[in-house]
Amino acid sequence: MNRLFIIILIVLACATNLHAARIKDLAAFEGVRDNQLVGYGLVVGLNGTGDSDQAYVQIRSVVTMLEKMGITVGVSQIKVKNVAAVMVTATLPPFAKQGNRLDVLVSSLGDAKSISGGTLIMAPLKGADSQVYAVAQGSVLTNSFAFAGQGASAQKNHPTAGRIPAAALVERELPNTLLGKTVLRLNLNQADFTTASRIASAINDKFKAPVATNTDPGSVVLQIPASYTNRTVEFVAALETLEVRPDNQARVVLNERTGTIVMGENVRISTVAVSHGNLTLVIKETPQVSQPAPLSSAGETKVVPRTDLKVEEDNRRLSVMQEGSSIGDVVRGLNAIGVTPRDLISILQAIKAAGALQADLSII
């Protein structure tokens, strides 16, 4: 008997934490975020698939690059098809250090047919403050091809955009937003009163002190304890692995184009009766020819129309769903009357219009 009681307690404990998530997956610290970088560059070494002579920006860029290398050449003397002007983008993660490498995305800016097999020449990447934070260079990978002749062409994937893994070297570091702070702010990915309150309670229980306070449903303010002075990283590491069960608004998402329906676990309905029947009308035209007998002296050939009309209506009964039905009850009840996903979209819209669906209905 005692062993059975212990097993029941273990099962209940596991069920309680079944839907829990780590704080690091539910929220992020203020100031700890990615930053976008953008730059302009040239991709060289293309097999005649670069920008045409009509792309003046590419020609001017080649002239400027050669002048920096000590080679003077006129714009009218440049006629190359192996070069493409591109925009280079990357994401600078928080706390990136000098020498770290970043993946970059290279996209054609002119009328190049393909940048596959080309090499990106050193391109500085700037942030929103116009400061250079990284420099990118390397071979472009597009995983595509594009060939064309006079009468036919072949293409796979998108040949005018590609990636360069680990192509950018970080040259400038972002300031440390956590250094020297005594108060931190934890911003929730999705603002919710219940989730914010649970996060604050879990943190206070962990440190046995009123460390966390709620100011709004989208954030939690943290006061770093005296025992963690100058140990901000350890404090963050100790709290971000705490598990909290998030709470979300009941919502039903419908996509009429694909027939996709997604319903959250908190969706409930009031008592409602549902009936959904399809009316099928089939009209078939079978023209028939009426003509006189052979060698007759009178009569003429005529086409006599013939129409077959068939009407079918599904014989489906009302299905009653009791108040407080869960998502499982809703699905089982609607499956009982044999509805398809597209029929279910119309039924859910009608239930919402009747005021019986206790959830937010979102149509995408």
Helix content: 10-25%
Largest sheet: 6 strands, antiparallel, barrel
Percent of residues in β-strands: 25-35%
Tell me the distance between the termini.
53 Å
* Overall geometric form: flat
Q: Which structural class is indicated by helix and strand composition?
A: alpha+beta
The count of strands amounts to 25
Multimeric state: single chain
Number of helices: 7
Radius of gyration: 34 Å
Low-confidence stretches: 4-17
Taken together, the total number of domains comes to 3
Biggest sheet: strand arrangement: 3-4-5-10-7-6
Taking all residues together, what is the mean pLDDT?
Answer: 79
Care to describe what's here?
By secondary structure, the chain is of the alpha+beta class. The chain has three domains: 35-147 and 154-170, no CATH class; 178-244, 2-Layer Sandwich (Alpha-Beta Plaits); 251-289 and 302-363, no CATH class. 22% of the residues lie in helices and 35% in strands. It is built from seven helices and 25 strands. The chain has a six-stranded antiparallel barrel. It has a four-stranded antiparallel sheet with strand order 2-11-13-12. It has a three-stranded mixed sheet with strand order 16-15-25, covered by helices on one side. Strand 15 and strand 16 form a beta hairpin.
Question: Can you give keywords for this protein?
Answer:
364 residues; alpha+beta; Alpha-Beta Plaits; 3 domains; 22% helix; flat
